[in-house]
Amino acid sequence: MPVPMDAFDEVRPATACLDLLTEPVAAAIRGWRGSVPVEEIRYVDTDPAIADTDALVEHHGRWLLEQSANCVVVAGKRGGEVSLAACVVLSHTRVDVNGVVRRQLGARKASFAPMDTAVGDSGMEYGGITPIGLPAGWPLLVDAAVADAPYVLIGSGGRRGKLIVPGKALAELPGVTVLAGLGVA
């Protein structure tokens, strides 16, 4: 079931809202090369006070939990080396950090990256990190359920605003690996 766009006061093409996006996200939208037309990526203005999933769901309704996705930054560690990756799962699931992520990254240990690292290295705001516009060297792990979704609501790079994006578009982002079971209940 796609995100009902009429649930929001104003939904605009992300290309018309580049000034509202963080620079890495705006640059990714400007340079879009996926098979999904960039016009299918939409921007929804939301209150930064309700940027977190629980607050957004409380404000807009429970239906949103099933049609939203979260992007979290993880740190994989092996032999003193730390590598960052991003994981995208549906909001009603959690990232299998110690199983799927750790194995995929070939890490001895994996954990959520510290907030300062995630924000500083991504160029995005905490609570708004999105898979669109992440640093080129980061692996991007996307749960198969996200890739298969007609549309999901994700962060816009900042606490203000969200993006409505076809799952297929997320599956085609640079550095992506689509994994079944990345998101667990």
TrEMBL record:
GO molecular function: aminoacyl-tRNA deacylase activity
Signal peptide: none
Residue span, YbaK/aminoacyl-tRNA synthetase-associated domain: 48-171
Protein's UniProt name: YbaK/aminoacyl-tRNA synthetase-associated domain-containing protein
Organism: Streptomyces kasugaensis
